[in-house]
Batch of 4 targets.
Target 1
Amino acid sequence: MSRHLRVAIVGAGPAGIYAADILTKSDRDVSVDILEADPTPFGLIRYGVAPDHPRIKEIVKALHRVMNQPQIRFFGNVSYGDDLKLDDLRQFYDAVIFATGARRDRDLDIPGIDLAGSYGAADFVAWYDGHPEAPRTWDFQPHAEEIAVVGVGNVGLDVARILAKTADELLVTEIPDNVYDGLKANAAKDIHVFARRGPAQVKFTPMELRELSHSPNIDVVVHPEGFEFDEGSMDALRNSKSQKLTVDVLQNYLAKDETGAAHRIHIHFCNNPVEVLGEDGQVVGLRTEITELDGTGNVRGTGEFKDWPVQAVYRAIGYYSDNLSGLPFDAARGVVPNDGGRVLEIDGSPLPGAYVTGWIKRGPVGLIGHTKSDAAQTISMVLEDADQLAAPESPRPEAVERYLAERGIEFTTWEGWQRLDEHERSLGENHQHTRERVKVVPREDMVRIARVTA
């Protein structure tokens, strides 16, 4: 008979929770502890999805059902690398799965990127989603009527849409009070989204693109310059129904006349940002090089440049994962080297008992469906290795709690999170506006509320 297997998952976003779900539904006798640096579960679903996307946040309901399983425990406010390292976890678990995702912005190495008024999209998202460690204010310049967003993924569109909407439009969402107050100071009227390549190479989804026009206060303006297709682009459209739908939506916008709405989102193709222009340390423009498709779907520079008079720049060129203590790291790709989920040492040999799933495994690409299939692949590796992983005597489940308590680490639990969730909802219910929740709780208060005895 196979011995009971104890597994730790580091990261309580969708990747980690899906991995726990698949593992506990397997034939193996297993229990799972999920460790998370935030006091709360759900990762970027909670702190990375725009507040006007409530249907995406419906995913939380499914994740909630997983976390209710008796074989799964949650330890929040526990930071891997600071509170626990890999050698510590090996005392308590047979295997460790890292699902830490990616939360910070990938660098854009061009002159002027560090000027005042140049921002990372991840920082802006954390602010408008009310992350407990995000600043309470955002530096909206009163004169910044024209804004540049660099990058054509869903995050870039989220940033453009939030900048283009009025604060009052977002009152029906769960934005925090401080975000509502901050957005009222946003003077943006024209948001310019720049794509280095053509329409067939954009990374946003057709649904995300359609939602730009749902606001009566926004006109979506697709500019014809660069709206071209080479053979590589046509191949991309033939091979991807989603990509073709996206291009269809872009073509519909291209054919539409402006309505005279107060705000506009402009989408520009074949414009590669090469410099953020500044004056007295402040952003005053963005310089792009005009590119052309080279036949393969990639582009080459033309040597022709254009300056855009914008007063702020948001880079949304992708997320980047943090290097994890005790694990190898591929800095170029921002991932832990692995073979299907098994962590690989520098010499290519497997690191015993260590696995990865989600963005730390494959990079910050793909949607929720990819996360599920990714987790399934990793769990198949864990189960394949299970008999070699299991020590003769199963680690005691209370050992990790004792370890954390002895070191004065105030961890939160699933039961504590449910109390915190009720507290946050009560803030929204008692609020003068109609939004469901007002996330205004600082980290220390989160931990205090979650640790109060029921």
Target 2
Amino acid sequence: MSGHTERLSVPWWLWLPSLLVGAVLAAQVGLGAAGPRGWVAYPVVLTLVAVGLWRLGRIRISVTQDEFLVDDARLPLRHVAQAIPLDAATKRELLGPSADPMAFVIQRPWVPGAVQVVLDDPDDVTPYWVISSRRPEDLARALRRVG
């Protein structure tokens, strides 16, 4: 049973400028080679850009019956003390001036919202997790309901 699932994929509007920058970079690399060798940079660089964007957007977040899963990190729900939805300004404050260096953070700049998950685990030095979320209220609600 899953209480919440989402993927922090890269939005479509970020792909176009990224591939454009990749094409300009490939053109610069290809200028040094004459003929067909100059075109080899395009498939190589554009493939690297596409793979990089795909990897940036592969983060999966889910709340199961007994765990909070963020990519390959797992948090047993018995250690969740609080789940607080954050808007963009609060997220910026929590990741900037008010940041705790021991916090676990999965942050994507194109996702405005986040959830702060305060931990209650005496064996863990991590005070809280800050996880980007497109639906922070839903994620916090799922963590509170199941936890």
Target 3
Amino acid sequence: MRILILFLAVFFVAQFACAQDFVGVNAVPDSAGVTILDKLQVERDPVLDKMLDWHIEKNHEKEGMDGFRVEIFFSSKMDAKEQALKTKVDFLSEYPEYAVHIKFVAPNFRVRVGDFRTKNEAWKLYKKIQREYPTAFVVPDVINFPLLKPNSK
């Protein structure tokens, strides 16, 4: 089953990678990506369409992308909220360039730092703050989309 899914994924990536742009043809918006497949004269299993629709729907619901953060605080004590806010303020005073997120997943408050796309990027921050926050560790999380840098051309 894994081989079939892998083959289908490689097939679709190859199809979209080899697509060509024609000058003078109107571009189709991203939301109509599935309707493009309906215009193709290719026989395909209807289950594949259901899987693609499900994948698109789940990505719209996620409100972010998979990535990594460094967790510097974790507690379920009575004053955990106040400690989490204090940890956030203390961290931002030392490292203002990183985003700090406080999450409450009952009954725990967590303070997570950064929006890293790769684990290697998160490890760099972890190594930098390891002495001040010895209980810190890298965790997978849904991160905010990275800001696009303006084109320098």
Target 4
Amino acid sequence: MAHSICILGGGFGGLYTALALSKLDWKDTPHEIVLIDQRDRFVFAPLLYELVTGELQTWEIAPPYEELIANTGIRFHRSGVDSIDIDAQTVDLTDGKSLSYDRIVLALGGETPMDMAPGVAEHAIPFRTLADAYRLKDRLRQLEAANLEKIRVAIVGGGYSGVEIACKVAERLGDKGRVRIVERANQILQTSPEFNQKAALDALDEKNVWIDYETTVTEVTANSFSLSYKDKVDTLPVDIVLWTVGSKVSPALDALNLPRNERGQFTISPTLQVIDYPHIFALGDLADGPDADGKPVPPTAQSALQQADYAAWNIWASLTDRPLLPFRYQHLGEMMTLGTDNATLSGLGIKLEGNLAYVARRLTYLYRMPTLDHQIRVGVNWLTQPVQALLTGSNK
């Protein structure tokens, strides 16, 4: 009977695990790989910001799963997850189907908590999914069409996501925009190298983005939000509130009685198996555990990408009587977009900013696209775009 491998979540952790599994030597070991996600497209999240400014198109950063897994033997099932029975080793899906598994990968990723202040869930926009990016673009289009004197946008959170989307929105709106970042700490990009912080501050200053430090949001309404600074609360008019702070484990996994940390993440061993449950693998945002050297693993796309290869190997090894490998995390640096033709890159002894960093970031992400076919399609498009623009311009 074929071994069934069920992968919940088609983000960096889930999709790349599935693709890596499909390339291993399964000779004499019948198996089935099922990838489950409630959406029909993979989203290359680090490039989601480029949709807002129109630098990239949806097909480039969000190819359909069916296209990516063609000819791999992976089966894609579009559905949400209703519940998991650990003892019976079955997954009940929201479309009514039930699947049994021999190995399961929990890779549903995190969600942005929208209950951190009154009105956030109703009026603020998170920025994590393709739907979020579309919602923001539609709202910006409406405001631009209304011909307002100023379009006021507030971004809650001064981490990477907040800084990157602030630069893109400020650039898109130009002089019509009044963009501000609200950060509860006394600096932005707290965990980032000083080089990145300075480059980000310079870019935000150039784009006239205001930063409210040591400030929290106490309420959001349809056209205003309230800020608390040193026990004083001010209510300001606003057209868009973007919420980029916090992360929580997918509610679909709330009922799972598995070892967790205080943040709700599943506790894993260096082999990426949930403690005391060797048939359950967890990676990405929802997993917490040291690597082979005892180092903490940050909940980033970079980590999930690296974990995927180890998860695939260890699943294969556990089903073919081979030794499992402990995960070794390699910090390859950090990259951040700071607007069109501007970025910052630091890591492995390299520090770049400006146009050169922008090109390096694009090439790095092109290399990390999930399949060679998609890399080629996107790469050819990126190479021919400047030529097309030149020809179009010369014909006007």
